[in-house]
Amino acid sequence: MLDNLTQRLARVMKTLKGEARLTESNIADALREVRMALLEADVALPVVKDFIAAVKEKAVGEEVIGSLSPGQALVGVVHREMTKLMGEAHQGLNLAAQPPAIVLMAGLQGAGKTTTTGKLAKLLKETQKKKVLVVSCDVYRPAAIEQLKTVAAQAGVEFFPSSPSDKPEAIAAAAVDYAKRHYFDVLLVDTAGRLAIDAEMMDEIKRLHAALNPVETLFVVDAMLGQDAVNTARAFGEALPLTGVILTKLDGDARGGAALSVRHVTGKPIKFAGVGEKLSGLEAFHPERMASRVLG
Ligand code: GDP
Known about the structure:
Blueprint: H1 5-12, H2 28-40, H3 45-59, H4 70-85, E1 101-106, H5 113-128, E2 132-136, H6 142-155, E3 158-160, H7 168-181, E4 186-190, H8 199-212, E5 216-222, H9 229-239, E6 244-248, H10 257-266, E7 270-274, E8 282-284, H11 287-295
Parallel strand pairs: 1-4, 1-5, 2-3, 2-4, 5-6, 6-7
Antiparallel strand pairs: 7-8
Bound molecules: guanosine-5'-diphosphate.
Guanosine-5'-diphosphate binds next to helix 5.
């Protein structure tokens, strides 16, 4: 069992009792511990470097007040900076659009897009009383369309059927038209993912985005990807004007370093966290709690 960051810092900063101020030299060892803790939590190296630089800038010169030890003061700075980097407060979905509000789900195959589409549908239906339609534009995997149909039934929302012989944009246009004519509040559009980033997939989702003009474009990413989440996030962030991120599989062992990396790379808020395979396993993402998890 690894020691948490607070314990580690207490150890390296023991020698500093009575110091009234954090200085570059008295926090050097502690920053090395912070760096190690972040790497162990699977935060990508370039992100760790930027973060450490930011913490150093904030910490140096900080007064150690009252009963705090220098170690505690530094933990405070680290925690604050991390919460800030993760986006301060929870941000929900933006559905402020002429109905139907269109939400486009993007991400690699296996990230959890279809499951998350079902989770969001259930959440919007149950907590916001929205009339929700879901559609799959994954014309390559008939099983994916079937999976969304099953998930929609479980969520108690309507499923718009799609045929693998149609083009994704045509399916999307038909779903929008249907949603308008039947007064749906929200249309959730599930898309095809590949096992790795490829140009064809990116072109397709860009075309879908242009055709749909969604109010939310959500990047769904598996927290277990750890450091690899960075490259995926960068590719999707460059291809699409993302409005938010959903980090899945946080119920697993992942320490959550991917959260910091993805946020840093895309600059977009992580809006929800997937915490289980069931449709009830979706939670609002809270930066402060995530900071505690990453720091251990
Ligand atoms: P897609 O290919 O992106 O549509 O991914 P799926 O929705 O099919 O999900 C891939 C796998 O991840 C499935 O076995 C899901 O049950 C599982 N999954 C999705 N989200 C979560 C989550 O938050 N926690 C866990 N433990 N499993 C998840």
